[in-house]
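Retro notes, structure queue

What went well: the backlog is down to a handful. What didn't: a couple of records were mislabeled last round, so from now on we paste the full input next to the output in the thread. Example, using Protein farnesyltransferase subunit beta from Drosophila busckii:
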Amino acid sequence: MWSSDELLFRNFTDLKNLKFDDEKLSTTTSREQQKTEDSVEKCYDRFQQMQFLNPRVAQLNRIQHQQYLDQMLLNLPNNYQCLDSSRPWCIYWTLQSAQLLNFSFPQETLDNVVQFLSKCRAATGGFGGGPGQYAHLAPTYAAVNSLCIIGTKNAYRAIDRDSLIKFLFSVREADGSFRLHVDGETDVRGAYCAISCAKLLNVPAPVANELFAGTADWIARCQTYEGGFGGAPDLEAHGGYTFCGIAGLALLNQADKCNQKALLQWTLRRQMSYEGGFQGRTNKLVDGCYSFWVGATIPITQATLVGADKAMEQTFFDIGALQEYILLCCQKANGGLIDKPGKPQDLYHTCYTLSGVSVAQHSQSAFYPQVLGDLTNELSPTHPLFNVPPKSVAAALKYFSNNSKNDTD
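Corresponding output:
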């Protein structure tokens, strides 16, 4: 069922007035912005020329994206060798993208994924980027999300919550911050990954309270004068870190420790007037991945301001323009999605562009998704705080609530 308020494509002729004006002072930054807008303009011009001849020009290339994901899960190409320490991430990006597109892999394939992720579990608790690698919070987050998406009893048992909790304590600092691995760097990603894993696995409240004592205060110190969050106190505001900051605070029910109104203003300014997508930092280029990192931050922040128990009547950013940018500028004809026109497809951008579209479609009302273009473009919803399906969150919380240890039935 869809809302009667139909989303329409913008008038691209009038839109040209919103292109960047360098005020006759050309810089490297202004030239890159104009180059990007020119590439986006070609996509929008093609849509105008083809929309009445080829209805598929306004459609999500669902079948091609499914084929791309199926191929990538079974056999990564050679250029992914540089991500050998991020193999749980590759799995997560693939599984989450598939869920958004509402298709699943054969159970035998998913069982093999569980077996592989079990081999990535470190003896010290948590998960490494591959078999035999040191435990690290980032692949731990990706592995936990992946196993919760699969959602079988064997998948849950592969997590070993007790040893994971010990790992989380091993990377916790006295001020409530978290290192990404033992003796590693400290930034807000670590705090978010730790909080997300603990909440998704329903870590008992007394343990969680001890684990995250002081964490909300430390995260709040990462907010900058601009309103967004940096990776650590006194660093530049950045879209990815900003999501980690507000999502972590929201999961701890302590979002009021940051300046929520300044945060909302900063995130809203990240939507590009002409392109429709989001940039990740001030004076940077549009990037499809921020469709989620910034796009999810906005409704999360709105919810913390009005109360999570109240329905959100309107999302403050232009949800139509965001979907427009992804549909027309970020799809590859042979499957997969991209950062911006001219870039190659990859799993990371496929996951976060689709996740951003899902947030845009479903953030206003769970009953009336706001879908641009063909109604078949509707994606399945994602939980904005975890970026896994809401049903996976509910199932994981139930399982770990009923099982104090992973090895019990």
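Agreed that this is the format going forward. Reviewer comment attached to the example: Residues 28-50 form the longest helix (23 residues).
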